[in-house]
Design a protein that fits this description.
Blueprint: E1 11-15, E2 18-23, E3 26-31, E4 45-46, E5 49-50, E6 56-59, E7 65-68, E8 74-84, E9 91-97, E10 104-105, E11 112-113, H1 119-127, E12 130-134, E13 149-156, E14 160-166, H2 171-175, E15 184-186, E16 198-204, E17 207-212, E18 226-233, E19 252-253, E20 261-268, E21 276-282, H3 299-308, E22 329-336, E23 341-347, H4 352-356, E24 366-367, E25 381-385, E26 388-391, E27 405-413
Antiparallel strand pairs: 1-2, 2-3, 4-5, 6-7, 7-14, 8-13, 8-18, 9-12, 9-14, 10-11, 14-15, 16-17, 17-18, 19-23, 20-22, 20-27, 21-23, 23-24, 25-26, 26-27
Length: 415
C-alpha cells in the first residue's frame, strides 16, 4: 500500500478560495479560505507528525508555481525536454514574482510592476530571468532533442515561479532590442482572461508535464510545440554549468576546479558552411577580455583579444577545435586547465588559421555570445541545455534554426 512519507508526496491545488490537499489519487483535506501560497511544510500536519521541512513545488490554478518549505530550504529545478513539434526555435525560461498578480520589483528604482505595465514589465522580468533551454526543430543527424535537460540550482522556499517562452527568439535578443517583446509568451495570465499559452499536467509527487502553444493567442491550440517535464531534484547541475541560464547564459565556469578537467564532447552539423567553434577565456560574465568590453570595444580589437585567449588543450598546447562534416557527428576529448570562465565563438565558413595568418583579406566572420560585438548585433548562439550550445551561422540570424553547429560537452575532473 502506498504511503505518504514526505511533503513532496502531497499535491496542493487552489479551488476557489480553498486549498485542497491530495495524495495517492485521493483528497485528504480541504483548507477553507486558505491560499496555496500561504502553505509550506512548517504549517501543515498529517496525523500527529510534522512533515519534514523539505522543499516541494505547488501549482496554483494560474500556473504560478510556489516552492514550499522555509525560506532557508533550497532545492534544484530539473527540466527535461520531451518533444518538439514546431516550426520555430523557441527558448523557455522563468522568473520569480512576489505575488499571484505577478508583481516584480525594479532593483534600481524600488518600483513594483505587474503584467499590466506591458513592455516595461516584460523587459524587467527577463532581466531577472533564468534561461532554461531551447528546442531545435530541425536537428542534424545524430542529435536528439529529448536528451537535452537543465538543472538549475538554488531555488528557495517561498519562491513563486512564472515560466515564459520567447517565440522564435532569445532572451538576449529581447534585452538587446533586436526582437520585439511581443515575442514573449507568458505561462501565466495572472488571473486575467488572457489565453494561457502553457498547459500544465500535474503528474503527482511533485512532477509536472509542461506543454506549450507557441502561437500568440492560441494558434492551432495543439499544445505540442514544445513539451518538457519538470520536478524538484537533489541532483546537482553538471560541472561547468553554474553560470548558464543567467545573462549571458552560454558560459562555462571552471573557476571552482582545482585540477585539470577532461572535456568529452560531440559536435553535430546541419549546414552548407564549414564552420569552426572555439571557446576563449573571459575576465568576467560580461565578456570582458583584457579590459575590452564587447559592447563598446572595436570588433577587430576584441576579436584579436579572443584569439589570444583561445582555449588550448593543457596536454598538447593546441587550440581545441569543435567542428564536424555536414550531417555527421564528431566526437573528441580535451584536457582543460582549471580556473577560467570560457565563452564560445563561431568562425563562419572559415578557420582559425585564416584569422591568424598574414593575409587580412581572407578573414571570415566571427560571432560571439555578446551581441554588442557582433557585426549584425544579432544573437547567433543559444543555450540548448546544460553544457549544450546551438549556433546560427548566417548574418542577420539567417533561417534561425541554430542547428548549423551543435556542441555538447561533458566535464569531469582528471584524477
Amino acid at each position: 500500500m502506498e504511503q505518504i512519507n514526505k511533503f513532496s508526496d502531497l499535491t496542493i491545488t487552489q479551488e476557489g478560495t480553498d486549498s485542497v490537499i491530495s495524495a495517492i489519487g485521493k483528497k485528504l483535506a480541504i483548507l477553507k479560505n486558505t491560499q496555496v501560497t500561504s502553505l509550506n511544510p512548517g504549517n501543515i500536519l498529517i496525523g500527529t507528525d510534522d512533515i519534514p521541512d523539505i522543499p516541494s513545488i505547488i501549482d496554483t490554478k494560474d500556473n504560478i508555481f510556489t516552492i514550499g518549505g522555509s525560506l532557508s530550504a533550497k532545492t534544484n529545478l530539473k527540466v527535461k525536454l520531451t518533444s518538439i513539434d514546431a516550426s520555430f526555435v523557441n527558448e523557455v525560461g522563468f522568473f520569480i514574482v512576489k505575488d499571484d498578480k505577478g508583481r516584480i520589483v525594479d532593483p534600481d528604482t524600488g518600483n513594483s510592476l505587474t503584467a499590466a505595465d506591458g513592455d516595461a514589465y516584460l523587459k524587467l522580468a527577463l532581466k531577472q530571468s533564468q534561461i532554461l533551454l531551447s528546442g531545435i526543430s530541425n536537428p542534424p543527424n545524430g542529435f536528439k532533442s529529448n536528451e537535452i535537460s537543465r538543472i538549475v540550482e538554488g531555488i528557495k522556499g517561498g519562491d513563486r515561479i512564472v515560466f515564459y517562452m520567447v517565440q522564435n527568439g532569445t532572451t538576449d535578443g529581447i534585452l538587446a532590442n533586436q526582437i520585439p517583446s511581443s515575442k514573449i509568451l507568458l505561462g501565466s495570465s495572472f488571473g486575467s482572461d488572457a489565453f494561457l499559452q502553457l498547459k500544465v499536467d500535474n503528474l503527482g509527487n511533485g512532477k509536472f508535464n509542461f506543454a506549450w502553444e507557441d502561437q500568440i493567442g492560441g494558434g492551432d491550440k495543439d499544445f505540442n510545440d514544445m513539451v518538457f517535464s519538470l520536478e524538484l531534484s537533489n541532483e546537482s547541475a553538471p560541472f561547468g554549468s553554474t553560470l548558464q541560464g543567467k545573462n549571458s547564459s552560454e558560459l562555462l565556469d571552471l573557476t571552482k576546479a582545482s585540477a585539470n578537467i577532461k572535456a568529452d564532447f560531440s559536435v553535430s552539423r546541419e549546414a552548407d558552411f564549414n564552420n569552426e567553434v572555439y571557446f576563449y577565456k573571459v575576465d568576467s560574465t560580461d565578456g570582458l577580455v583584457g579590459g575590452l568590453n564587447p559592447n563598446s570595444a572595436n570588433q577587430a580589437d576584441y576579436l584579436q583579444a579572443a584569439i589570444n585567449n583561445v582555449l588550448k588543450d593543457a596536454s598538447t598546447g593546441q587550440a581545441v577545435k569543435f567542428a564536424a562534416n555536414n550531417q555527421e557527428i564528431q566526437t573528441g576529448s580535451a584536457v582543460i586547465a582549471p580556473g577560467s570562465i570560457l565563452a564560445p565563438m563561431i568562425i563562419v565558413n572559415g578557420s582559425l588559421n585564416e584569422l591568424t595568418d598574414s593575409n587580412p583579406n581572407n578573414n571570415p566572420t566571427v560571432y560571439f555570445p555578446f551581441l554588442g560585438v557582433n557585426r549584425d548585433r544579432v544573437d547567433h548562439i543559444r543555450l540548448l541545455g546544460n553544457n549544450a550550445w546551438g549556433f546560427e551561422d548566417l548574418a542577420g540570424g539567417g533561417d534561425g534554426d541554430f542547428n548549423d553547429v551543435i556542441v555538447k560537452m561533458n566535464l569531469s575532473i582528471v584524477k
